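Quick one, T. Sequence first:
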Amino acid sequence: MSGVFPTRTPAERTALIEAALDFLPQHMDSPQARVMLIAIGLQESRLKHRYQLVAGKPKAKGPARGLWQFERMGGTAGVLTHSASFRLALATVESANLTAFDPRTVWTHLEHDDLLAARFARLLLWTDPRALPARGDAQGGWDCYIRNWRPGKPHRDTWDAFWAEAEDIVYGAA
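Structure tokens:
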């Protein structure tokens, strides 16, 4: 598998996120959560790369996996151990028929299981005690993304367009 598949349409992005949120408690679903999930997915992988690409090495895999680019001992371990997400992470792992509840097992599967990746992305956002940003608050979205994903090389110049695209998908084009 190349790690790349065709760009997802807005309908496919919405369906993936809806399926992920349908599994989680209803109070975790909101337009703000959907916007954040889409915007972060676009920022991290364009919602098409299942592993982190390494510049100049087309077949090499970087340390991040899944459409939301989780590192094993970063976001993956964080979701599995945080008091706000632990129980839901366990249920999520069980629903994916994984045989172990550990960062390596989950991280490995994130590359091949988009639904697991979407659920983990929502759970990572859930660990943040701050409210999700409001509609139109691209800077608040950026701050939330930086705070929770902690990207090594953040690209602020692409965020606003991805935020606008996510809002168009969730709220409809204005």
